[in-house]
């Protein structure tokens, strides 16, 4: 039979080892959790960038459609103006007719520039928002990785502390 002090020492050491193992595993599990969160942040940042790129393409397509529709409207307006001027006796070479055509072309060009300016502004806003959101997510990812390293380290320290506490308790039994 084993003496009671040795049995108590063995149980104390076994309990300390179990506690140390549990602390170490908890630290590893927390690190894995934070690594998972970091990976999710990185993936979400990529998706935000892709969505922004798709939105930029969509904005460009819509602006091109608007410009084409405007060009069609201008061509029709110029045709109507020529007919109207001819009906009213204004020749194609008159100063008034040239002024009307020039004014129409100038305003049409301003409208085209406004369409492009608005599209460029929307693109810049889309890209800026995506860049800021992606930066926030990548920063959070780095913080999660750092938290994971800290959790692992805390688990290691708690494991060592459990082992030292058990060793100290066991030593007191023999003093």
Structure, explained:
There is one protein chain. This protein is 93% helix and 0% strand. The chain has one domain. The model has no long low-confidence stretch (mean pLDDT 90). It is an all-alpha fold and 175 residues long. It is rod-shaped and about 130 Å long.
Shape: rod-shaped
Summed up, the domain count is 1
Helix content: over 70%
SSE arrangement, N to C: HH
Give the helix/strand class: mainly alpha
Would you count the extended β strands for me?
A: 0
Give a quick account of the main beta sheet: strands, pairing sense, barrel closure. Answer: none
The number of helices is 2
Unreliable stretches covering 5 or more consecutive residues? none
- Average pLDDT, all residues: 90
Separation of the first and last Cα atoms = 22 Å
The share of residues in extended strands comes to: under 5%
Q: Over the alpha carbons, how many angstroms does the gyration radius reach? A: 38 Å
Salient structural properties:
single chain, 175 residues, mainly alpha, 93% helix, 0% strand
Brief characterization of the structure:
With 175 residues, the chain is mainly alpha-helical. The chain has helices at 4-87, 95-173. Helix 1 runs antiparallel to helix 2 (95-173).
SSE blueprint:
Elements: H1 4-87, H2 95-173
Helix pairs in contact: 1-2
